[in-house]
Amino acid sequence: MRDLVSKSTSHNSIETKWAFQNKFDKSGIIVRNKARLVAKGYNQEEGIDYDETYAPVERLKAIRLVLAFACVMDFRLYQMDVKSAFLNGLIEEEVYVDQPPSFVDYKHPNHVYTLKNTLYGLKQAPRSWYERLTSFLTEQSFTRGQVDKTFFIKKVNSESLIVQIYVDDIIFGATNEIFYKEFSSCM
């Protein structure tokens, strides 16, 4: 969230809620309690609160091709889950959310927050995350696939590093062990 501002009559503000979840270990004992602020994105109206939500998602065939490519090229594949993926997308339009329940500023109870980054639950969150990750990968000299827009490859001499994106999961591998260690550390 960014700034607490007075509520505008020209823009809708999106309600928020707290999502609570318990994480268990293998024996069923609670290891951690999670609390996450979530936007009630189902209240958003297309054309008013957001323009575009489409984010490319690869098909199962693309993952099979990556697996086959890794077998032929004889290299390991790794999987990475980006835990805060949708919190890292940048919002270009003006989005206002209500103050979180139980955390209302007592001096300004009718004010709302403007968002700079996405929140879980916003309709535009997957697209914003994909665009930010794509721009990062292209800055790192990756080339995006022509057919599958979620596939990226980086070639240095005869070595290759491939990356396949699936929402907030990333599958990657390289012909050189140094490449995937560098990629893992920079991500």
Overall description:
- By secondary structure, this protein is α+β, with helices and mostly antiparallel strands.
- The protein has one domain (4-43, 54-186).
- Helices cover 21% and strands 31% of the residues.
- The protein contains 3 helices and 11 strands; from the N terminus they run ββββαβββαββββα.
- The strands form 3 sheets. The chain has a 5-stranded antiparallel sheet, with helices on both faces. Strands 1-7-6-2 form a 4-stranded mixed sheet, with no helix packed on it.
Uncertain segments are none
| Adjacency order of strands in the biggest sheet | 5-11-10-9-8
Record field, number of beta strands = 11
* Largest sheet features: 5 strands, antiparallel
- Please state the structural category: alpha+beta
Helix content: 10-25%
